[in-house]
Amino acid sequence: MTVRVRFAPSPTGMFHVGGARSALQNWIYAKQQGGVFVLRIEDTDAARNKPEWTEGILSALDWIGIERGSYEGPYFQSSYAAEHRAAAGRLHESGRAYYCDCTREAVQARTGNQYTGYDGYCRDRGLPSGAGRALRFRTPDEGTTVVTDLIRGEPTFENKLIEDFVIARGDGSPVFLLANVVDDMTMGISHVIRAEEHLPNTPKQQLLWDALGVKPPIWAHVPVVVNEKRQKLSKRRDKVALEAYRDEGYLAEAMRNYLMLLGWAPSGDREIVPWSVIEDEFRLTEVNPSPAFFDEKKLRAFNGEYIRALPIEEFVAACQPWLTGTGTIAPPPWQPAEFDPAAFAAVAPLAQTRIAVLSEIVPNVDFLFVASPLIDEAAWTKAMKAGSAELLDDAIAAFEAVPSWDAETLKATLEAVGAQRGLKLGKAQAPVRVAVTGRTVGLPLFESLEVLGAERTLTRLRAARVRLFAGQS
Questions:
Q1: Catalytic residues
Q2: Is 312 helix (H, G, I), strand (E, B) or coil?
């Protein structure tokens, strides 16, 4: 048997990180088994589908390493409408499905309970097809449906507890349960690896496979992904869009490494491992069925490790989208002509050790490429204490007299200025840093001043002195 797995997202919004995790697990399993990864776009929700969402799925998969041309598809579920309707017709002809004209209100009136499921009222009425009549699957009254699951063993469902469910709407269009099964049959899917939230649907789908005379696939329901409150990740409440993480500056390598740890772990006491190790060691049968916590803080730490491991040339290249702006990344606060690649290259090694996501490169280096520093007013208030004006006066005079403009000389000079006022270097450099960079934190100060140059540094110190004088008068 050739292993054929599928990833079947709906183009109705941003690409969910949980979906990305499932895609990677399918991708690796197919590679391990010498099988085929199939991409199917489930686009039958015409009211919510948008072409840009489909392109978003494709580009997100590209980003995490599942690139166009390396898989089968994309297929579109809407292209298989004839197969869906034909399957519904076969189920009706064989007596495994029947037409029903019951409304929700009628069922509730008969059962006296709004929470009771369908009561089978139309099972033996023999209604023909007609406008407003849904097609329901006739579930067995006895026995059990056993789902063979590579992760969860053999979940067992009593058939009598499964209501006769709708497989085609009153207008004849098949619902998700049937369309999904028929698509998997048509595409020869052998293994369905998907999120735990689909497990309650699985006995219904397995009954459909059996009724259509085809052996069901092997199932694997991976754990639900939850937030810090152990709630299922929700796009209405949580940060779940893969594109948002990409545009914030998470590296694809870090993201896919982290996603694969949601429910599984490589051997040994390690988590950050080469992708080749994950491809070799991942086993579906070793996935933990318990909910998996998506810890953004941990992901951020992962990403920082990956950034620091980049060769400096790759780090410089990776920063480029944030240094120029793209269609989805905001432009930096400087004009393109103001950017100096040589200056950036000089401070890049300093920035690389200090940022956790690539978007943080901008506030770390913007002081080099703007005409005047972008002052953080809270930082100004914190740094410019009593005596700061006089300190800046002394620093200006001392810097004007230095024999060479290099980090070591500048540090020694400011250290001496501070000592004359009874200040340690940390206290002495705070007003200088804010005057020059606009912030209290950032790259090492003296290396920054060296790259900025004497003229621009002294201009900013004098401007800060003027502002302080104006505030005092």
A1: 235
A2: helix
